[in-house]
Amino acid sequence: MDRVTQSCMVYTDEAPEGVSDAVKTALKPFEVKWSVHPEHPTFGGHGGWPGCLVSNEDWPKVFAALKDEANFEYLVDHTAVDYPDRKPERFTVLGLAQNLETQERLMVRTRVAEGGAVPTLTHLWMSADWAERETFDMFGIRFAGHPELTRIYMPQDFDGWPLRRDFPMQGHNRFRD
Q: Which one of 5, 64, 74, 98 has the lowest number of neighbouring Cβ atoms within 10 Å?
């Protein structure tokens, strides 16, 4: 078994226990690295979900395959994690999709460098519109093909990305009463 360890996550070529045959079949055409969290090697009952790491260019294709071939019709969540010391791909963008009939969930991850872009999922789910705008607003990650990638929480002229780990805890401005 080919295993690659990054941080506390372990990536392997074999799907972890609990991944349905429909998901395995849908993702077979892609070079998927399956993730296993060492503290939750099986995913039942501990709040963890099986996951996979995919290339940036395969990101929308993987979600389309999950939706069309494995009946993952619900995008539960979509966000990012900042690893400022990891080069060249500083950010991990992740999406959590669910099959509502079987309640199976899958965490799909991709990586992107600072200044890079991830293909949008808005053509697959309307909910991706808001989630991608939120990720852009908080992390500065761009989504190629997004219909209106503008800030939703911070003012349009705000300087910086508040959820990046190198953003100052007090922000750039000090406020007084």
A: 5
CA distances from 81 to 28, 56, 78, 89 (A): 26, 15, 11, 11
The three-point CA angle 174-150-161 to 5° equals 35
**Radius of gyration of the chain from Cα atoms?**
17
Residue 45 scores a pLDDT above 90 = no
Class of domain 3-125: alpha beta
Q: Report residue 17's pLDDT band, with 50, 70 and 90 as the boundaries.
A: confident
Domain boundaries, the chain: 3-125
Q: Is residue 166 very low, low, confident or very high in pLDDT (cuts 50, 70, 90)?
A: confident
Q: Considering the chain, what is the average pLDDT of its residues?
A: 87
Closest CA to 53 of 1, 15, 102, 18: 15
